[in-house]
Amino acid sequence: MQYPAPIEKLIASYMKLPGIGSKTATRLAFYTIDMNKDDVDAFATSLTEAKSKLHYCSICGNITDDDPCEICQDQGRDQTTILVVEQPKDVMSIDRTNEYHGLYHVLHGVLSPIEGRGPEDLNIESLITRLQKHPEVKEVIVATNATPEGEATAQYLARLIKPAQIKVTRLAHGLAVGSDIEYADEMTLLKAVEGRTEI
Ligand SMILES: [Zn+2]
């Protein structure tokens, strides 16, 4: 016994999302069917618009509907510092602290031999090109998460960047080991940026 095809299709779509199994997907599908038509239309439009209008900034890799992104275009920002994060959402977390006013670079992941992710799978080459093009950059702050992969990625970047006489620093570990930037509160992040140390 199967549900009518449109429901099955909707369930299959929800199951493509992370952490959603068939039970949750089924619940969401039936919930969607009960929603009023305007809300469903708005939901569908926001999905397709997000996909068609958003892309990664060609300079920093952050998610944007403009290229270069708002941050890269902002000449009022400190052009001598680049803060490197794992994911676009980390940019938002750090920027909300209002403590950091420099530029960003998004790696889109961390090195992970177990998952077969090497330097070529991350947004690293563009960081190196960026540093070569912009000798005004004096410091790269590596703000990968405090996980073994995050640490290994920070060490890798330090080895790569330091020969160019650029200071490489790491966020202070007010951040608990294994913790994600995403879940750190603003005060912790602020302290982590202030207390950064050279690697
Ligand atoms: Zn950008």
Describe this structure in words.
Belongs to the RecR family. It holds the Pfam family Toprim_4. It comes from Lacticaseibacillus suilingensis. With 199 residues, the protein is α/β, with parallel strands linked by helices. The chain has two domains: 5-53, RecR Domain 1 (Helicase, Ruva Protein, domain 3, Orthogonal Bundle); 74-198, 3-Layer(aba) Sandwich (Dna Topoisomerase Vi A Subunit, Chain: A, domain 2). Helix content is 42%, strand content 12%. It has eight helices and seven strands. It has helices spanning 5-14, 22-34, 37-53, 70-73, 88-95, 125-133, 148-161, 186-194, and strands at residues 55-56, 63-64, 81-85, 103-106, 139-142, 167-170, 197-198. The strands form two sheets. A five-stranded mixed sheet has the order 4-3-5-6-7. The mean pLDDT is 90. Residues 57, 59-60, 62, 68-69, 71-72 line the site of zinc ion (ZN).
Largest sheet: 5 strands, mixed
What is the helical fraction, as a range of percent? 40-55%
> What count of domains describes the coordinates?
2
For the residues shown, what is the average pLDDT? 90
Q: Percent of residues in beta strands? A: 5-15%
Task: Provide the succession of SSEs.
Answer: HHHEEHEHEHEHEHE
From the coordinates shown, what is the CATH architecture of the largest domain? 3-Layer(aba) Sandwich
Distance between the termini: 60 Å
* Rounded radius of gyration (Å): 20 Å
Cα shape:
elongated
Bound molecules: zinc ion
Function: May play a role in DNA repair. It seems to be involved in an RecBC-independent recombinational process of DNA repair. It may act with RecF and RecO.
Domain Toprim: 80-176
Zinc finger (C4-type): 57-72
InterPro entries: DNA_Rcmb_RecR, Rcmb_RecR, Rcmb_RecR_Znf, TOPRIM_dom, TOPRIM_RecR
